[in-house]
Amino acid sequence: MKIKSKSTGDNRFVIIMAGGRGERFWPVSREKTPKQLVTLLGNRSFLQQAVDRVLPLAPLKNIIIITNAVQAPEVRRQLPKLPRENVIAEPVGRDTCAAVALGAAVVGQRSTSAVMAVLPADHVIPEEKKFQQVLADSFDVAGRGQVIVTIGIKPTEPATGYGYIRVGNELPPPQGVKACKTAFFKAEQFVEKPNLEKAQEYLNSGMYRWNAGMFIWSFVTITQGLEKYQPELAAACQRWFNAAGTPKLAKVLAKEYPAIKKVSIDYALMEHAQNVVVADGSFEWDDLGSWTALARHLKADAEGNCSVGDFIHVDGARNIIFDARTKNRTPITVVGLTDAILVQTDDAVMLAHKSQAQKVKELVKKLAENVKYKKLT
Predict the structure, then answer these.
(1) Which fold has domain 9-287?
(2) What digits encode the pLDDT tens for the residues 227-266?
(3) Cβ 208 vs Cβ 202: under 8 Å
């Protein structure tokens, strides 16, 4: 295999997926301002933090946001320095494979020798320096050969909410190339979310990584992968490539996107490809999937209550209290409440048992079906 020179900043691109609805974080997360566009931790939204994290590795002009038409105005408002044409709005959601193909078309139109990272907008990564080292090494590996790199997170618990990747032996660096600080492994198998017993087995073996949905590849590699395993999407990618960088792109997407097959990049490509390597993601990471996950990042009181806002209780324990009101804030008080989630916004209050946190999505669906409450979604 011919060894290419290291990828440089100007030829590195980052595609940030920011089109999700974040329904499990209702009532703070809404269709127009979903989880990735609200501030839950710190003083910047998850999307803003995602952009901040990659700026040391790629210039702002090379950061592309894939979102949807409803959320695009807020994305542009939150990222005022990002070139307007770098916010790409999908007409309808078609899962991650379509978004990857669209991102590749936009990047490829600017540079067919580009190396690009595809990253979610809503992850929590406190150890930014460690993450940046892994991402920089992944850019270099993806730029040297025709491999797909995915960042696998070292499991810290038998989590049942994540997919896993079984890894093989550590890969040696190519001849004549200095070894990276990050370890890379051959991906042996992608596995679905396991039950608790199986997750414990994966954790104990040391041969599995959490599938964090972070990918790095060259334009050539991703388009060849689509051609081999998803020819219809590859053909669409070629058409979008021809229209990218012009006003025609929006019209082409509006016409074609609704008919695109809805499939994830994991199922469409990653589970089939034989050229996948796993970068060892040995940094602190969290995919905030529901309100209960937020508690991992908030300081608890002596009774295990985690709160944002003015909270007073008697005999309350292990609750998550979040006050997102922007005006007329008043104290939130509870008596004898345990293992609950209480969220208050300017126009809604939600009270749920922690064990039912995943059902908030069902609540949002029920609200959307009622004309009286649809505006709250």
Answers:
(1) Spore Coat Polysaccharide Biosynthesis Protein SpsA; Chain A (3.90.550)
(2) 999 999 999 999 999 999 999 999 999 999 999 999 999 9
(3) yes
User: Which two three-digit tokens encode residue 254?
Assistant: 């509006």
User: What pTM was computed for the model?
Assistant: 0.91
Report the b/e string of 77-106 with b at 16+ CB within 10 A.
Answer: ebbeebeeebbbbbeeebbbbbbbbbbbbb
Report the alpha-carbon distance of residue 260 to residue 239 in Å, rounded: 13
Give the whole-angstrom CA distance, residue 120 versus residue 213: 7
For the chain, the structural domain boundaries read: 9-287, 291-376
Report the C-alpha gap between 306 and 300 in whole angstroms. Answer: 5
Q: Could you tell me where the DSSP H helices lie in the chain?
A: 46-54, 72-78, 95-110, 128-144, 196-205, 219-229, 231-243, 248-256, 265, 291-294, 360-368
**Residue range 61-109, pLDDT digits in tens:** 999 999 999 999 999 999 999 999 999 999 999 999 999 999 999 999 9
* The CA-based dihedral angle spanning residues 233, 238, 239, 240, taken in that order and rounded to the nearest 10 degrees: 80
